[in-house]
């Protein structure tokens, strides 16, 4: 499938876009971005230099994905969400001179396969969002989020577990959980949630 770039989008010729990827109006995709097949970058979104995205990612309108972020397959980044890259932001150095790229070291956010970042959420680098986790809309993530965790609030705190369908898992009371949508079973071992393979 062909890559679709809407009129008014700014895509560097040095970016690598996978088959079937769509870049919408006013989006900017910087140099050395590597994007897998079937991705969607919404209106006004920003993908920073060297960001790596897996297949079938969706970055919604006006989301900001700053380098060196790494997104797995099937990651959802909601409208106006921000993945930061500067742990000590300043416009100037202590002597008042304007900072440039040599004056700081970018650190990125890493997001595992299938995870979702809600609208206007902020992930403060360096953090890792585990596979299939959900960050609620408006949350501010300052610590790593385990796979399948549901986190909310400012700062974000875990309030439950979610399955691959994105729905909150039902606690069966014996260390196992069930997805109310798919019926898939999950098992909690310590702080690690995993899907139970069925025969």
From TrEMBL:
Q: Which Pfam families match?
A: Hexapep (PF00132), Hexapep_2 (PF14602)
- A single GO molecular function, which one? transferase activity
Bilayer-crossing residues are: none
- Would the keyword Transferase turn up in this protein's UniProt record? yes
Q: Enumerate the InterPro entries for this protein.
A: Hexapep (IPR001451), Trans_hexapeptide_repeat (IPR050179), Trimer_LpxA-like_sf (IPR011004)
List, alphabetically, the CDD domains matched: LbH_WxcM_N_like
Keyword list (alphabetical) reads: Transferase
What name has this protein been given in UniProt?
A: Transferase hexapeptide (Six repeat-containing protein)
